[in-house]
């Protein structure tokens, strides 16, 4: 039984080992064990097993030492060298552990000449030469290839044509004049394939469903370093929209039709259909949206119906959250969202936010506009209570607003009624305002949660008049901007600027929520929340007519999801333009979480001394 088990164990071990030297000894041991079985010698079997253990401990260091591979390519560089390296099988093994057996490495090395040739050909080199060398080193293997690319093949004859209904469509004929396809141009097969792919995608996007290359050929004459290119693109017929059909869902079809991006009779452009699909997904009504042209039901005039399959989402969604910020302390939130209130697609959301500083109850009622993707009418009612070291306010608001989005920009305008009771120290005031307001904002970035470049801009204008149900007259403007710019692949510069100004007939009647304060996590760090601003005779901060605050920050990526930062903040809220700014310096750490960066900052005011720790969560733009 011992002898049979030993043979099986050795056989399995020999099947999976990759080192040739170890494999040779294992085979010798297997032969010895099998001989011992025939001779009936248990002693010989035992000796063979002991030899296996000793051999394993002796050969293991050699096997570990062979787990490094170096591939050196000389004679070519740039895209040519990268393409050749990508085709080399040995190059793809660099960094692998453990490496294949020595025989496998030698086999792949013998294929190198063919693989180098395969890497040269796509860029037009058909007469390349390669000198290949493979040697053992102290750390493993070194493969060395000296490549002589030879002259590059150029295009001789170039026969390019477009046929079909789209023969006069500029987007489908511009490729005929591409420099890389003209006679005398260096042959670049990758560019050739890219042009074919791009033209086919453009054709599908314009409604040429049957578009294809009827002829696509490159005939190479290596001895002459010449190639003939023949391309014939047949656009086929242009398909047009017959109708768009929706399956039955809880909202009216009249609303769904307003998400259309194509009218009956227009070309069935795939990019326009995808735009409609994105709009329906972003509406929030549906958990699934599929837009499917029914090509097999096209009529004799190439008119195609489009079926939209919609899967309604849950009608009501709940969300709960908890967090912490040094401005607000512990935060709790809860919300209920009705994705549709009725079959007209109206939406409603109730939000409750609680913290140590501010408490808010908000009710939003949304009505889709004529273009529901970009236009919304909003009714809003809100109650907000805020208590800081110097102010205490309660505000009731009710109003209506129109919102519009176009190409990354958003506009809003509306009318609201505000009633606020506010206290500075022991003095209590109350004000009623009828406020028309409007605003604009824009965000442009490569990644909203982790941008390497981009900017955010916004501007808001509001006003009130004593002749229109208000306790005071004022005009107020707020402008803010922030930018992110990458100096290197690891270092970014972040800049921020906030401006505000108020003109009022009686500023003392301005409610606390409409005065300017600064200081805190997102303004002048090193100071407390709303700590900076004009003060009264008792030293209580009462807010100012004007605001100026800015920041410069450098951060550096020290690990894939970690950054270190240094920053300078400056700013103040004031009534007089000659008021000096407050400055602070600090350092911080950032962790890139799935919902945006988590920031911890240590800041010290240059004017007043001391330091504060700030903790925030949210996107940079």
Side by side, the strands of the main sheet go: 10-11-12-13-14-15-16-17-18-19-20-21-22-23-24-25
Contiguous runs where pLDDT drops below 50 for at least 5 residues: 1-22, 39-45, 47-66
Summarize model confidence as the mean pLDDT.
87
Sheet-strand content, in percent, reads: 35-45%
Distance between the amino and carboxyl termini: 73 Å
Please give the largest β-sheet: 16 strands, antiparallel
Rg, rounded, reads: 36 Å
Annotation, overall tally of beta strands:
25
How many helices does DSSP assign?
10
The oligomerization state is single chain
The helix content, as a percent range, equals 10-25%
| Structural class determined from secondary elements | alpha+beta
Question: Based on CA inertia axes, which overall geometry fits?
Answer: globular
């Amino acid at each position: 039984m011992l002898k049979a088990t030993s043979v099986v164990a050795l056989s399995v071990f020999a099947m999976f080992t990759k080192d040739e030297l170890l494999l040779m000894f294992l085979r010798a041991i297997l032969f010895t064990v099998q001989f011992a079985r025939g001779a009936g010698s248990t002693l010989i079997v035992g000796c063979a097993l002991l030899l296996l253990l000793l051999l394993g401990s002796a050969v293991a260091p050699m096997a570990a030492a062979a787990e490094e591979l170096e591939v050196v390519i000389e004679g070519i560089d740039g895209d040519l060298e990268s393409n050749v390296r990508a085709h080399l099988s040995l190059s793809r093994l660099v960094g692998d552990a453990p490496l294949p057996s020595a025989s496998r490495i030698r086999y792949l090395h013998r294929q190198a000449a063919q693989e180098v040739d395969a890497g040269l050909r796509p860029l037009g080199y058909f007469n390349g030469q390669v000198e290949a060398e493979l040697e053992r080193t102290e750390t493993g293997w070194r493969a060395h290839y000296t490549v002589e690319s030879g002259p590059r093949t150029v295009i001789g004859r170039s026969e390019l044509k477009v046929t079909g209904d789209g023969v006069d469509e500029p987007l489908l004929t511009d490729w005929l004049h591409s420099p890389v396809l003209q006679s005398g141009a260096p042959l670049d097969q990758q560019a050739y394939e890219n042009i074919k792919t791009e033209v086919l995608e453009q054709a599908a996007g314009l409604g040429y469903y049957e578009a294809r290359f009827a002829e696509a050929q490159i005939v190479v004459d290596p001895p002459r370093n010449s190639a003939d290119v023949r391309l014939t693109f047949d656009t086929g017929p242009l398909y047009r929209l017959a109708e768009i059909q929706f399956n039955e869902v809880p909202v009216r079809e009249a609303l769904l039709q307003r998400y259309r991006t194509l009218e009956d009779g227009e070309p069935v452009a795939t990019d326009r259909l995808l735009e409609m699909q994105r709009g329906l997904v972003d509406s929030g009504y549906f958990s699934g949206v599929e837009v499917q042209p029914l090509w097999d039901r096209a009529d004799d005039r190439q008119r195609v119906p489009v079926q939209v399959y919609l899967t309604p989402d849950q009608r009501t969604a709940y969300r709960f959250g908890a967090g912490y910020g040094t401005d607000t302390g512990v935060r709790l939130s809860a919300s209920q969202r009705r994705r549709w209130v009725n079959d007209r697609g109206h939406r409603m959301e109730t939000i409750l936010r609680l913290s140590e500083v501010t408490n808010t109850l908000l009710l939003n009622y949304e009505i889709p506009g004529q273009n529901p993707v970009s236009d919304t009418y909003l009714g809003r009612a809100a109650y907000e209570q805020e208590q800081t070291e110097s102010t205490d306010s309660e505000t009731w608001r009710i109003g209506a607003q129109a919102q519009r989005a176009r190409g990354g920009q958003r506009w809003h305008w509306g009318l609201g009624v505000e009633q606020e009771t506010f206290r500075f120290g022991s003095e209590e005031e109350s004000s009623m305002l009828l406020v028309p307001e409007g605003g604009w904002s824009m965000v442009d970035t490569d990644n909203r949660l982790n941008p390497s470049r981009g900017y955010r801009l916004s501007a808001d204008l509001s006003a009130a008049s004593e002749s229109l149900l208000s306790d005071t007259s004022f005009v107020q403007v707020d402008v803010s901007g922030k930018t992110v710019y990458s100096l290197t692949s690891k270092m970014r510069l972040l800049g921020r600027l906030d401006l505000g100004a108020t003109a009022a007939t009686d500023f003392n009647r301005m409610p606390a929520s409409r005065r300017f304060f600064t200081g805190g996590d997102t303004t002048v760090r090193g100071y407390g929340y709303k700590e900076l601003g004009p003060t009264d005779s008792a030293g209580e901060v009462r807010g100012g007519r004007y605001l100026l605050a800015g920041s410069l920050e450098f951060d550096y990526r020290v690990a894939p999801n970690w950054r270190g930062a240094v920053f300078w903040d400056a700013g103040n809220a004031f009534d007089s333009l000659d008021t000096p700014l407050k400055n602070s310096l600090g350092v911080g750490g950032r962790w890139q979480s799935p919902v945006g960066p988590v920031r911890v900052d240590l800041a010290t005011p240059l004017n007043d001394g001391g330091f504060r720790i700030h903790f925030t969560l949210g996107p940079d733009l």
